[in-house]
Amino acid sequence: MTALAVLTAAGSGVRLGCDGPKALAVVAGRTVLDRAAEGLAAAGVSALVVTAPESELERFRSVLPGHVPSRPEVPVVLVAGGASRQASVAAGLEAVPEAAELAGVELGEDTPVLVHDAARCLTPPEVVGRVVAAVEAGSVAVVPGIPVTDTLKEVERAGTSAPEGGSVLRVVGTPSRSRLRAVQTPQGFRWAVLLRAHEHGRALALQESTAATDDAALVEALGLPVDLVEGDRRSLKITTRSDLLLAEMLLGPDPD
Q1: Per-residue pLDDT reduced to its tens digit, 143-186
Q2: Which residues contact 235 (CB under 8 A, 6 or more apart)?
Q3: Per-residue confidence (pLDDT) for residue 11, from 0 to 100
Q4: How far is it, in rounded angstroms, from Cα 3 to Cα 171?
Q5: How far apart are CA 80 and CA 90, in angstroms?
Q6: Whole-number percent of the chain with pLDDT over 90
Q7: 23 vs 136, 160, 182, 205, 222, CA distance in Å?
Q8: How far apart are CA 177 and CA 175, in angstroms?
Q9: Average pLDDT, the chain
Q10: Which carries the bigger pLDDT value, residue 256 or residue 128?
C-alpha cells in the first residue's frame, strides 16, 4: 500500500469530561491518539500527518515522537490544528508533501490520501484497506459506511410551542433506510481531488458553524462522485463518557 493519512486530533475533550484534548484520553491503558495512529500504520499507511491543539503540541509529541512508536518506519508530522475540523484538515494537507518525502513516497495526483478522526481509534485495519483499495481501483473519493438501523424522520419547525417549553417539529418525510448509511472514517481521496475540494470550500472553514464536518461533502460540492465501501461498527466515534466505556468493552480485559 502507498497511502498517506491526515489524522485529525485537535478536538477538545469537553463532552468526554476529560482534562485536556480528547485524543489524549486513555482507553484501556493507551491513549486514543496512540491507538488511532497504530491502526493506520498496521493497515499499511506509509506516513501520517497529525493535527493537534497548538497549545498541546509537546504533549502530543511525547506520544508520537516523530514516528508511530510500534512502527518506527512510519513517520509522523505534527501540525497545529485550526478553528474548525475543516481548517485542521486543511492545515494537515499542507504537511502531506513533507510526510511523503520522509516516507520516500512519490506524491502524485492519484496518490491515495486518507482523512481519519483519531476519535475512531478502534477502526479495524481491514476498513482502511478497503478504502485505499477503492481509490487505487479508480474511485476519486471513498467513504466507509454502515447500514442505518433506526427509523429516521425529516423534520421542519411546526411553528407551535410544546407544553413544557421548547418547540414542536413537524415530520415531513420518512426516508427509506435501505438508501441510508452512517458514514465513518477514514475517508479516502485522490490527492489532487482532496486539495481541489478543500480549496473550493476554503471559506467555509473560517468558523465551526459553517465548516464541513465531512471531507467527502466538499468533494460532492465539486460535482464529483463519492463511492462507499463497507464500514465496521467498531469504528464508533468516541465523543462522550459512554462512548469511552463502550470502546473499553469492545477491547476486552487488559491482558496484563
Answers
A1: 999 999 999 999 998 766 666 666 788 999 999 999 999 999 99
A2: 120, 122, 123, 124, 127, 144, 184, 185
A3: 79
A4: 43
A5: 11
A6: 73
A7: 30, 41, 22, 21, 31
A8: 6
A9: 91
A10: 128
Count of CB atoms situated within 10 Å of the CB of 18: 17
Omega before 53 within 30 of 0, i.e. cis: no
Dihedral angle of Cα 21, 14, 216, 181, to the nearest 10 degrees? 120
In this prediction the pTM is 0.91
The DSSP secondary structure of the chain, one letter per residue, reads: ---EEEEE---B-TTTT-SSBGGG-EETTEEHHHHHHHHHHHTT--EEEEEE-GGGHHHHHHHSSSEETTEEEEEEEEEE--SSHHHHHHHHHHTHHHHHHHHT----TT-EEEEEETT-TT--HHHHHHHHHHHHTT-SEEEEEEE--S---EEEEEEEE-TTSSEEEEEEE---GGG-EEE-S-EEEEHHHHHHHHHHTGGGGGSTTTS-S-HHHHHHHTT---EEEE--TT-----SHHHHHHHHHHH-S---
- CA of residue 147 relative to chain centroid, distance: 18
- Count CB-CB contacts under 10 A for residue 157: 9
For residue 255, is pLDDT > 60? no
Residue with more model confidence, 72 or 10: 72
Going by their DSSP bridges, the two strands 4-8 and 112-117 should be labelled as parallel
Sorted by sequence, the CB contacts under 8 Å of residue 31 that are 6+ apart come out as 23, 24, 25, 63
CA count, 13 A, side-chain hemisphere, 25: 28
Cross-strand pairs, 8:
51, 117
Beta-carbon contacts of residue 138 (< 8 Å; ≥ 6 apart) = none
